[in-house]
Each structure stands twice: as structure tokens, then as C-alpha cells.
Amino acid sequence: MTQFFTILLLLFFCNTITAQVYEKKIDSLINSEFNDKNGPGGVFMVTQKGKNLYKKAFGKANLELEVNMTPENVFQIGSMTKQFTAVAVLILEDQGKLNVNDPISKYIKDYPSGDKITIHHLLTHTSGIKDFTKMKSLSSIAQKEMKPEMMVDFFKNEPVDFILGEKFDYNNSGYVVLGYIIELVSGDSYENFIKKNIFEKSGMSHSYYATDRQIIPKRAYGYHKKEHGYVNKTIINFSVPFSSGSLMSTVDDMVKWQNALNQNALLSSKELKKAFQKYKLNNGEEFTYGYGWHLKDINGTPTREHGGSIFGFKSMGVYIPSEDIYVIGFSNCDCHSPTEIVKNIAKETLNLAKK
């Protein structure tokens, strides 16, 4: 019996030491970038198989009021919105209301070449349509309230960047069109559809369609960094990025999102697989994007990942399916990118899991 307890004690100490070494390593990775206690900061979280391995906040959530960041703060997640938009499309397909191979002219009658461009092309960034974020005239609408139809009209007549299906080129316009199609097919607003079909079903009670007007409890404020110091983020009307980048969330809610996907709580596993498979270009070449996720790897171990950037905020998430590891990082200054940090944390966590 004494020997048994000795072994248990040794295991406990070994696990404790391993956990402490791991925590210090993650701290050092984050502190390399997020090292200003009095500046904007961020939140990082790591989970594996339902267990929290790491969760910490850095810096300030609000500079003027000198409010420290907490892991519960709400961030704008930018283009991580795209994975919600993609799943919303698949939910509608699961309900028999659309098909990803449908031409978009079925829903938007007057879209140029809409009889050839499919929903699949939009989901995979292979449509060639002009990305509105690269248009010089964007500043003329950036602060206007734009209906989805107005946003689509803003870029639909621009010359295409390449022939349909010829290459993968990350494109925000495609995901705006998808948001408009979600509204047309569902008969509901994009905001309400996401809230009812994803946020509520996943238990994501601290996730929102972004707003600068409504009171958002525990909101982290966004900042830029100039030569003379930090400034408040540039104002943009969220109807402009719309379904390509206008959601807000917390690290805990993003873990709930990942769990809901894993448990097929939102749609069937057969349907969800479409989001996580690689597709091919016209020439047969495979590219590393599914529907709303980059499909990459860490030393040969497959990952699903995506980042986001919107005025004042940056985000990044990496999920490792084989080990059920999820790493998420948010920043409330677009001067600090969590992208490489999150990737390095994922690498460290994977190494630990394989020991």
C-alpha cells in the first residue's frame, strides 16, 4: 500500500512539474509580443479533450479607464466570422434549402456571371470576384449603414481578378455574398440566423454580431499604435464587413463553438465534413482551404486554423483534431498579432500530448 501511494505521489509531482514547465513556456511565447502591462493586451486559452490547459489575460481591456484584461472579455474576431458563415450555409443545406453547387443566380438574379459562380466557389475563395477590401472606393462607404444588397452592389460589377476556379485567393466579398444568400434563403437577418442556429445552440451566451452602439458586457476596446502611442480604433460600420468579419466572442465561447462542432450539435457529421476537406482547382491542383477554415498541419499532424483582423483587433485559432487540442488567441490592438504565437503554442501542446 505504501509503495502504491509513493507511485501516486511521484506521478502527481511529475505532472505538476510538467504543467509548470508548460505554463512557463507558454508565458514566454506570449510575453515576447504581449509585454506591455499598461498597453492593450490579449487573452489566450488552450484546451485538450475538455480540459483547460492554459487560460490567461494580458494588458488592458480599456486604456482610458485603466481596466485590466480578463479571460472573460469580449473581442471582435474579424475573419474568424467566416467559419460561422460557412457552417450557416451548411445548416441551410442540411435543411434542404440550398445546395453548395447551386449557381448564385438562383438567389441573386442579376449577379454578373451568377449562372456560373456557385456557392462552393464563394466558400472556397475560388470565385475570382473583386475583394471589396482592396477597392480604393471602400473609404466612401466604410462608415455608412449598408444593407447586404447594397454591399453586393458595391463590388459585383468590378472586373474579376481571375477565371472562375483557376486559383485560390482569399476573398471577403465572397463571404458577404454568402451572408446575403443566407438572409434570402432563411427569410431572417444574418445576425438572427447566427444567434438562433449557432450561438444559442452552442451555449455561446457572450457572442454577438458586432456593434459600437449597444452595451456589450465586458467588451474589450480596440486600439491602433501610432508613433506617439496608442489611439482608439478607426470606426467602421459593421454592415460593411458583415458576414465576412463582424462577429464578437470570448475565448470560452469559442471553445463551446469547437465542442458543438465536434459533437455534431449544429448539423450532421456528413454535412460538416464538407467544411474540413480540401478541394481542387480547375487544373486538378489541391489547395489547403475547406469551407471557412485553412487546412494545414504541424509537422505532418493535420490542423484546422483561421485568423482574423479588423480595426483594433486580431484573432487566431488552431484546432488539432487528432488530439482534440484547441488554441485560441485574441488581441485588442492590431499592433499585436496572435497568429504565430497561437501556432507556436499549438506546436508545444502537440509535442506535450505526444510524449
UniProtKB/TrEMBL annotation:
Keywords: Hydrolase, Signal. GO terms for molecular function: hydrolase activity. Residues 1-19 form the signal peptide. InterPro entries: AmpC-like (IPR050491), Beta-lactam-related (IPR001466), Beta-lactam/transpept-like (IPR012338). Pfam families: Beta-lactamase (PF00144). Residues 36-334 form the Beta-lactamase-related domain. PANTHER family: BETA-LACTAMASE-RELATED DOMAIN-CONTAINING PROTEIN, D-ALANYL-D-ALANINE-CARBOXYPEPTIDASE/ENDOPEPTIDASE AMPH. This is Serine hydrolase. It comes from Chryseobacterium glaciei. The lineage of its organism: Bacteria, Pseudomonadati, Bacteroidota, Flavobacteriia, Flavobacteriales.
